[in-house]
Design goal:
The protein is α/β, with parallel strands linked by helices and 298 residues long. The protein contains 9 helices and 14 strands.
Length: 298
């Protein structure tokens, strides 16, 4: 039986991953910095605590999913991402080094590191990284931290550049926002972006399937795109939900917020390594997410 350690194990992705690992008979330990909600497994992300927990649980693999998970959270705080992403990660990597950890370390980065580019599809070896937020900048720095420890101390760190993740239980980002607006009594849907906005989106359940394949595989240190290689226009999502819910809500784009013009993620590299050929059904996953929130009486 494999032992898995998850830092950030109570977040949206971490919680879904934890439940799937338990269902698949893994021995799993998870920790967080969220003091109010999870007192028994809340820790300060210090070098000492990381060293102690790695030694105590002696895991086969470790997921590091902690940190700020949404660019808008740090829009008005230039230090938030450095504190929650880079400093915590540095303590963890140093602890792994000092413990001579030999298993896989899986780190969650973001499509945000690429920023707006002209290419329709982007590979991991793209040298034109173009952060457009404090969040994306911190993710680039975090990737460099991972590369430094991989190269100099032989840690096996798999860095995943994730597209937008959505699904049941996530109370933020565009899908939740749209569902909330569709199910409200307001007759107008106001969006801060433009009618041209699009996202590459993956359901969290599909992401977790990929994460499970990673811990079963012999994947080696490197940066890997994780996405669907397909973009969905936000206006199409709104129109779909309007029709599905038999609504006739007016849609207004204020053009006050410019979202990055991301390219689609080329996922050939991770597909080849994991021998993976996953099929994605965005609108089916959207239906399930809508059903979940309607049952919760959002």
């Amino acid at each position: 039986m494999k032992t898995i350690l998850i830092f950030g194990g109570y977040g949206f992705v971490g919680n879904e991953l934890y439940n799937h690992l338990i269902a698949n008979k893994y021995k799993v330990f998870r920790y967080t910095t969220q003091k109010k909600e999870f007192k028994n497994t809340c820790i300060n992300y210090t070098l000492y605590n990381f060293k102690k927990l790695i030694k105590k649980h002696n895991p086969d693999d470790i997921f590091f999913l902690s940190g700020n998970s949404y660019p808008l959270f740090s829009k008005n705080d230039h230090l938030l991402d450095i504190k929650k992403n880079n400093i915590f990660l540095q303590n963890f990597l140093e602890a792994a080094k000092q413990n001579k950890f030999e298993g896989k370390i899986i780190y969650s980065s973001s499509i945000g590191v690429y920023g707006s580019i002209k290419e329709k599809s982007v590979k991991e070896n793209c040298t034109k990284l173009n952060p457009e937020s404090y969040y994306a900048l911190s993710k680039i720095n975090a990737e460099q931290q991972c590369l430094f420890y991989s190269k100099n101390f032989k840690l096996n760190i798999i860095t995943l550049r994730l597209c937008s993740i959505f699904g049941e239980g996530l109370k933020r980002q565009v899908i939740f926002d749209l569902i909330k607006k569709i199910t409200s009594k307001n007759k107008i849907i106001v969006m801060r972006g433009t009618i041209h906005d699009a996202r590459e989106m993956m359901c969290v359940k599909d992401l977790v399937k990929i994460l499970l394949l990673i811990i079963k595989s012999k994947i080696k240190t490197g940066i890997y795109n994780v996405g669907t290689n397909k973009q969905i226009k936000i206006i199409n999502v709104i129109n779909y939900l309007n029709k599905k819910e038999k609504k006739k809500k007016k849609i207004i784009f204020t053009n006050e917020f410019k979202f990055p013009n991301f390219a689609k993620l080329n996922v050939t590299k991770i597909n080849n390594v994991l021998k993976m050929n996953m099929k994605f059904n965005f609108f089916k996953d959207l239906d399930n997410t809508m059903k979940y929130w309607k049952n919760k009486r959002l």
